[in-house]
Specification:
The complex is a heterodimer. Chain A is α/β, with parallel strands linked by helices. Chain A contains eight helices and 18 strands. Classes of the chains: A alpha/beta, B alpha/beta. Bound molecules: flavin-adenine dinucleotide (FAD), flavin mononucleotide and FE2/S2 (inorganic) cluster.
């Protein structure tokens, strides 16, 4: 049997498959299908210092090879998460990653401080949120923004810190370098790519927020390219995500340079996808005499 | 187990009108769990998102679920192409369903493609059900015999008067006696039905639609504005908190 264990920033995951933030809630709904211990880890729904109501509907729609979402970070706030969700989650035999969002550096830092004294295994910084102080510009779209928010949070964060990069930038590898130099222990990439659909009958955007984040299979080639580029510039491990739907996609993502993987939208198509991907990966490794996943990471042979 | 995603055999498939299809799927474990008003997320090959379709009938003895759907876009058009004998993957039963009380004379109001989910309720209430069903015109009328077959008093209205009462379903409701109302259909119809129930001082439950991704309450995609006790509003989720809501909870 192949060894599917991976270690990221000192945290050992039983396998490289981590549920992507926002697609898995706080795990309870998927626990109806299988014990959550089949997953290496869970990145929880993005949490903020205070409860957030989210955007008005419609919030989701299908697109060719994927979907758009504009949920608007609806979440019950960090205190509620720590009190109501974390005690149950921490007993499920999987690693817990808290995905943290905010509108200002103070929000991020305050949220992270509250999580310092809990049993979460890792913090994932969602920097694709508007920076209210800088007139709504996203933290994640400039190197200064990425460096600034990462170094600020780093000062307050006692847990391993992973920064999740936005693909809505000209050169994502620069953002990866900025996160690394600001003290991130790992990078996860990619978040959703901003998109839009329009109802030709009403001429209204289908998503009430007008634009939404695109995810799903259509994202895979973009995510692979970005992970490959970033992995050549940074030494810290990369958790690859964006459109992974099959075990073959998972192998590609590892070869591109990822150490572990997150899977999101495919869960909506098939809630059992993580089990199928883990089995496929394991079989592929056995058939090819690969003993450890690290033999695959970055193994692409570019022309 | 509350719900699961399973491959089911399509045991019968037929067209009820030009664009409305009637499917019966064999899925004993899921049929055993199902209640009227719940729904399924139907997987379509090549599509990222499943399509939510209400459960129209539940036959626990045969282990089957019945779905009646209308072609509205690409996905439902592809679904209509499936032939008996083929396999379809469904995630079901989802949502809460209608709070059926067999002791109560219940007015069931369905509008257009909102009619199918009311049939499952009628099947449990039998002669305690008064079904008032509205359609565009004569060729859009579906399931009339099915409602009659389970013992429900069945009244039909059409917008153009080509069949049954010429006018709105709510015209027909006014003359009926009932202790409770359950409805599914377009929003204006639901609002009118709620007003009638309020006027009579009886409870009213409505089944709502919203675009969905997960179907189980994890992605928070299917938001619906609901009222809190204190008069403020919040976003609940159609797939988990609904699709059936007490009409007073909905922030219309
Ligand atoms: C709880 C629930 C129960 C339903 N029950 C039935 C039923 O019993 N019979 C029936 O004919 N229809 C029902 N619908 C509506 C049905 O889901 C849509 O008509 C269908 O999803 C349209 O898919 P499409 O690919 O043909 O359309 P497209 O417009 O091509 O679909 C694009 C995307 O939008 C979504 N979408 C479009 N319209 C709707 C809608 N009205 N509601 C939700 N999602 C939508 C699709 O699922 C898909 O993700 C129900 C909807 C919900 C939410
Ligand atoms: C409905 C939905 C909600 C999401 N919410 C969050 C979130 O709260 N925080 C976050 O960092 N990413 C969020 N994402 C992005 C995913 O975690 C992931 O980066 C993206 O969907 C690409 O991966 P996928 O193609 O496997 O889904 C969300 C995605 C979806 C589809
Ligand atoms: S569809 Fe995901 S929460 Fe309702």
């Amino acid at each position: 049997m192949a060894d599917l264990r991976v270690t990221i920033a000192g945290v050992e995951f039983a396998n490289p498959l981590i549920a992507a933030s926002g697609t898995f809630g706080f795990g309870r709904e998927y626990n109806e299908f299988y014990p959550l211990s089949v997953l290496g880890g869970i990145s929880c729904k993005g949490i903020t210092i205070k409860e957030r109501p989210g955007n008005p509907p419609p919030r989701v729609t299908e697109t060719p090879g994927g979907m758009l979402n504009a949920v608007g970070l609806q979440n019950p706030g960090v205190d509620h998460f720590i009190r109501e969700d974390l005690p149950w989650l921490s007993k499920q035999g999987t690693k817990i990653i808290a995905n943290v969002a905010g509108n200002a550096p103070e929000d991020y830092c305050a949220t992270v401080e509250k999580l310092n004294d809990t049993c979460v295994d890792m913090i994932e910084l969602n920097i694709s949120c508007p920076n209210v102080k800088q007139g709504g510009v996203q933290f994640g779209t400039t190197t200064e923004g990425v460096y600034g928010i990462t170094s600020e949070v780093r000062k307050h964060c006692k847990k391993p810190l992973m920064v999740k990069l936005s693909p809505n930038v000209t050169d994502i590898s620069e953002m990866a370098v900025a996160a690394e130099s600001a003290g991130a222990d790992a990078i996860s990439m990619i978040n959703t790519l901003t998109g839009m659909r329009i109802d030709i009958r009403t001429r209204r955007p289908i998503i009430r927020n007008n634009t939404g984040g695109m995810s799903g299979p259509a994202l895979l080639p973009i995510a692979l390219r970005m992970v490959w580029q970033a992995s050549q510039k940074v030494k810290i491990p990369i958790v690859g995500l964006g459109g992974i739907s099959t075990w073959q996609d998972a192998v590609e993502m590892l070869l591109a340079g990822a150490t572990a993987l997150q899977i999101g939208t495919v869960l909506f198509t098939d809630p059992y996808a993580p089990i199928k991907i883990a089995e496929g990966l394991s079989r592929y490794m056995d058939e090819n005499g690969i003993k450890s996943l690290s033999e695959l990471t970055g193994g692409v042979r570019p022309w | 187990m509350k719900y699961d995603s399973q491959l089911c055999k399509l045991v019968s498939a037929r067209a009820l009108t030009q664009d409305v299809y009637d499917f019966v799927l064999e899925c004993p474990p899921l049929a055993a769990l199902a209640r009227p008003g719940q729904f399924a997320q139907i997987r379509l090959p090549g599509h990222t998102l499943r399509r939510p379709i209400s459960i129209c009938g539940i036959d626990k003895a045969a282990g089957t679920l019945r779905f009646v759907f209308q072609i509205r876009g690409e996905g439902t058009a592809e679904l209509a192409q499936f032939q008996p004998g083929s396999q379809i993957e469904i995630l079901a039963p989802l949502g809460n369903g209608f709070p059926v009380d067999p002791a109560k004379r219940t007015l069931l109001v369905g509008g257009g493609i909102g009619v199918p989910p009311m049939l499952g309720v009628a099947a449990e209430l039998k002669d305690k059900a008064v079904a008032v069903l509205g359609f565009r015109s004569r060729d859009a009328v579906i399931l009339e015999k099915d409602f009659q077959g389970v013992g429900a008093k069945t009244l039909i209205a059409t917008d153009d008067g080509t069949y049954g009462h010429h006018g709105l379903v709510t015209d027909l409701c006014r003359d009926q006696e009932f202790d409770c109302v359950m409805a599914c259909g377009p929003a204006p119809m639901l609002k009118a039905v709620k007003a009638l129930a309020d006027h009579r001082g009886v409870p009213c439950f409505v089944s709502l639609e919203e675009r969905m991704a997960c179907g189980i309450g994890a992605c928070l995609g299917c938001a619906v504005a609901l009222n809190k006790e204190d008069g403020t509003q919040y976003f609940g989720h159609v797939c988990k908190d609904g699709p059936v809501f007490d009409s007073h909870r909905v922030a219309w």
